[in-house]
What we know:
This protein has helices at about 15-30, 50-65, 85-95, 100-105, 105-115, 120-125, 125-135, 150-165, 210-220, 235-250, 250-260, 270-295, 295-325, and strands at about 5-10, 35-40, 75-80, 140, 175. By secondary structure, it is mainly alpha-helical. It has two domains: about 5-185 and about 295-325, 3-Layer(aba) Sandwich (Rossmann fold); about 195-290, Tyrosyl-Transfer RNA Synthetase (Orthogonal Bundle). Strand 2 (about 35-40), helix 2 and strand 3 form a beta-alpha-beta unit. Helix 2 packs across helix 12 (about 270-295), helix 3 packs across helix 7 (about 125-135) and helix 7 crosses helix 8. The structure holds adenosine monophosphate. Adenosine monophosphate binds near residues 21, 22 and 145.
Amino acid sequence: MKTVVSGIRPTGKLHLGNYFGAVRSFLEMQENYNAYFFIADIHSLTTHPTPEDLHGNVKQVLAEYLAMGLDPEKCTLFIQSDVPQITELYTYMNMNAYLGELERSASFKEKVKTQRNNVNAGLLTYPVLMAVDILMHKADFVPVGKDQEQHLEMTRNYAKRFNNLYGVECFPEPQAYSQTGKLVKVPGLTDNGKMSKSGGENDAIFFDDPEKVTRKKIMKAVTDTGPEVPNQEKPSAIENLFDIMKLVSEPSAVEHFNDLYNNCTIRYGDFKKQIAEDVTSFIEPIRNRIEEIKSDNTYLAEVAKAGADKAKANAEATMKEVREIIGFRRFY
Ligand code: AMP
């Protein structure tokens, strides 16, 4: 079975966009691959979170992914900082990473602009840590977005460089995982492109929003004055709402409102009420499950421990090989 590795940023609070754009592909992967999913808490130190925020966010995303169906029996779900072998390999790999290539990385250039007052060495070597996350488990595939392609290319370079330096075949070169299903881009509620956490408080539908808040956001979603000509093209704000509806509603409901739109009799209030109803029914069981899991520290501890044990065992096997290759051979 092929191995796939994917990181999860512990930024907390997942929204519908994350679910349909990322989580669903994880659910697919855990069925068909030897899948490692980790919460990248070491990576997040580059932005200096408070200890409380860091821990709270890790707990939140762990609970959210479990509530959405990641199954610790089917995949290895672990927290990056639970696996000390990662920081060990990171140290070694940094010796084979060059300043020029790190400075040229698009994400580094971007960070230099966005966090001007905190351009730390961790930001510079971020791609090395990412490569280590992947190489540690000798991944065949990594699901990456467009913005991450360069990092994957760097990962392949570090794999090749290590193999060439020591004349070994230790690390395979991972490839980008392309989903079998269609990649869905979920639009936001404010007609400003894709649904996003940074799109203002009314743009994203979060799984842990109370039901009232979800309904209110949807009822407030941007629309227009309504269609005037039969079968006219839909403006983006309306198309967005239809796109969201397609994800959560019965096809018959979508068809019904589409017909009303096309014959210019749609009432946006009813349309949004239906979307709110269906979004709520979709979210409710997951939201309840998030709460349930978050309050069950014993379960969270069991999951985290089992994931850490599995990830550490595999990481240690890789590290035994790596230490021997490098020449760290014990005298005792
Ligand atoms: P982020 O919230 O930016 O950390 O994204 C986490 C994951 O969710 C990434 O794989 C994104 O590509 C995906 N994602 C975020 N927002 C959306 C969206 N509106 N539609 C589809 N996928 C998304």
